[in-house]
Amino acid sequence: MTGAAELSTGVALACLGAAAWLSGSGWHSGVRRVRLVLADGVAAGTGPPAVHRMTDGLRRVRGRLRPEWWSLPAGLLLAVLGNSVLPAVAGAAGVPLLRRTRLAGRARRAGERRQDAVIALCGALAGEVRAGRQPGEALLCAAHDTGGLGDARTAVLAAARFGGDVPGALAAAARQPGAEGLRGLAACWWVAVDQGAGLAAGLDRLEGALRAERDQRSDLRAQLAGARATAVMLAGLPVLGLLLGVALGADPLYVLLHTGAGLGCLLAGGVLEGLGVWWVTRIVRAAEAVS
């Protein structure tokens, strides 16, 4: 009976852990639910250590599994179904392309977060200056609260603390993606500290300009969402055609992978598909760059 209880509890634990892992954003809440449901697992011999080990293992697997690696099993599946090595080769070639796309998206999101941090830095610095702090001390406090300086925080704060070239350090920090607004902060700092003008007023105008630029880019991205969706839909139409061919009783994989005409169509279609996606992506990026 004890062995059967341990087996049933282990199966239940595996099912609940898999459901929590597949829930994506609900991972932590799923883990908590597993622990609450199996809180009496000590009597069955599983205990909290087993729960911890399984949830930690699922978390490690989830962290190591990258989306681009799904290209390999998809290619292998098509290779088995089509009895050809070409889908496996295409799946392996798709891994670096998908990885590059994922990393580009991550870099873009990091740049947007850094842009928001720079805007928050300008607002916090203006507030500290109005509160009566000296510019150097105000920059130390604002940078600590917002993190808008990014990786260049040490150099900029050292210049502010020891009387160094703060505008130069800010200009160097502006080379980070998304931190271009720090060039405006460097200009405000040079005009205010070196020329005696009001720093808070300049920071307010800079913050307003950066917010307006961010909102404009957000609006443009929303307007271009239709073009992106169209490109994705067009990219998926060949797969829909293959499914329709299978539904009609044909064998499109055999035609494409084992006949000369099919291989020619596959090659031409792949080239045109790639050119179409590249062209739409280029149009979207050019529109974003102009904005």
UniProtKB/TrEMBL annotation:
Where is this chain primarily localised? membrane
Q: Where are the transmembrane segments?
A: 74-98, 231-250, 256-280
Gene Ontology CC: plasma membrane
Q: Which domain of life is it from?
A: Bacteria
Membrane topology label: Multi-pass membrane protein
**InterPro entries, alphabetized:** T2SS_GspF_dom
Q: Where is the Type II secretion system protein GspF domain?
A: 123-245
Q: What is this protein called?
A: Type II secretion system protein GspF domain-containing protein
This protein's species is Streptomyces pactum
